[in-house]
Amino acid sequence: MKLTNSRVTVVKVMVVVMVVVEVESVWRHSSQHYLRLTETSFSVLRHFERVKSGAGLAGLDWWWWWWWWW
């Protein structure tokens, strides 16, 4: 079966659209993962800043007494 130029063009356009959709999907997923990872990192850093400044020590003391009590 011989393909005409219009059919070849349609196939090329379909392949390009599929590739663009797949790349966009992968990019969106990876950017959401990156944002979640960044948010977790900043949360951990904020916690250590609170502990370093002394504001978070009360929570650590509570955890220690709870652990010791059990």
Could you list some keywords that capture this structure?
mainly alpha, 70 residues
Description of the molecule:
By secondary structure, this protein is an all-alpha fold. The protein has one domain. 89% of the residues lie in helices and 0% in strands. It has two helices and no strands. The protein has helices at residues 5-53, 57-69. The mean pLDDT is 73.
Overall pLDDT confidence: 73
Shape: rod-shaped
Biggest sheet descriptor: none
Number of strands: 0
Number of separate structural domains: 1
Share of helix, binned:
over 70%
What is the topology?
Layout: H1 5-53, H2 57-69
Q: What is this structure, in a nutshell?
A:
By secondary structure, this protein is mainly alpha-helical.
